[in-house]
Design a protein that fits this description.
Strands 1, 2, 3, 4, 5, 6, 7, 8, 10, 11, 15 and 18 form a twelve-stranded mixed beta sheet that branches. The chain has a six-stranded antiparallel beta sheet with strand order 14-13-12-9-16-17, with no helix packed on it. It is of the alpha/beta class and 285 residues long. The protein has six helices and 18 strands. The chain has two domains: 129 residues, Rossmann fold, CATH 3.40.50.10330; 136 residues, Tumour Suppressor Smad4. GO terms for molecular function: NAD+ kinase activity. Pfam families: NAD_kinase, NAD_kinase_C.
Length: 285
């Protein structure tokens, strides 16, 4: 029996109604619908049950790009296909609009990969944190990891090594390390370049640097970036917008391309530059 997972923007009534429709559709096809406990209470449907989303066959994300990021985080690195349903504003990650959802689910249920649907794998970042030579935590990120000042009004000093070779020390509000998928998120607002999500690369972008060198760098995916907090100020570490740790001087963050990937379900070719064109209202000529 197939298992469908749902991740939903639980504070939007329209998203919750779509989630109930998905659960009812799954029930008619003898599929089990799994959600996390918080979403289960919000959806309030007899067709859903709480469980581990990393064990499902397909995860349906209902909301926007923020819900997609939460959906990927909930998989804990498992390569579960994710179908994004966009509600409202144009998103970069979602594959279908609300009116296309049930036909798309039917195409996934009855179709053949490579014909009726296909998979779009995206690079993830692996983020490890260390304090006094002891590992604090490991996280995965689809968009970016941000190492940023904890207190307003001050820059922080972050010493960067690339592949065990010292590069420089940044005096800045922080540093962003992003994937190509994340190049249109926080990094872009910090004047970073836009990368095609088909690439495997890592983007290092300073946030408000107080130094002459203020450019982003595009690094090869196998390169490992080590960042040590120096000086006397603490920093916050966030992955995909979620605060995961506060580090003190002497603590270290290591970022590399993960072995795991995020897998999206697509039903037609989505040209990245056309999404950008629509997003920014660009003309043909």
């Amino acid at each position: 029996m197939s298992r469908i997972g749902i991740a939903v923007h639980r504070f939007r009534p329209d998203a919750l109604e779509v989630a109930r429709e998905v659960a009812a559709w799954a029930s008619t096809h003898q599929m089990v619908t799994i959600v996390d406990e918080a979403d289960s209470a919000a959806i309030n449907s007899p067709h859903v049950q709480p469980g581990r989303l990393a064990d499902v066959d397909l995860l349906v994300s209902i909301g926007g790009d923020g819900t997609m990021l939460r959906a990927i985080r909930s998989l804990e690195g498992a390569t579960v296909p994710v179908l994004g349903v966009n509600l409202g504003l144009l998103g970069y990650l979602a594959a279908v609009e609300q009116e296309q959802l049930l036909p798309s689910l039917e195409a996934w249920r009855t179709g053949v990969e490579g014909t009726q649907f296909f998979y779009d794998d995206r690079m993830l970042l692996e983020v490890a944190m260390w304090s006094n030579n002891a590992r604090l935590a490991n996280h995965l990120a689809l968009n970016e990891v941000v190492i940023e000042k904890k207190d307003a009004g001050h820059t922080v000093r972050l010493a960067v090594d690339i592949d065990k070779v010292p590069f420089t020390t940044y005096a800045a509000d922080g540093l962003i390390l992003s994937t190509p998928t994340g190049s249109t998120a926080y990094s872009m607002s910090a004047r970073g370049p836009i990368l095609s999500p088909r690439l495997r690369a890592m983007l290092l972008t300073p946030v408000s640097p107080h130094m002459l060198f203020d450019r982003s760098m595009v690094l090869d995916a196998p390169e490992v970036v080590r960042i040590e907090v120096i000086g006397h100020r603490h920093v916050n570490v966030a992955t995909d917008g979620d605060l995961v740790h506060t580090l003190k001087p002497g603590d270290v963050v290591e970022v590399r391309a993960a072995n795991e990937v995020a897998r999206f379900v697509r039903f037609e070719e989505q040209r990245f530059h056309q999404i950008l064109k629509t997003k920014f209202g660009l003309s043909d000529r």
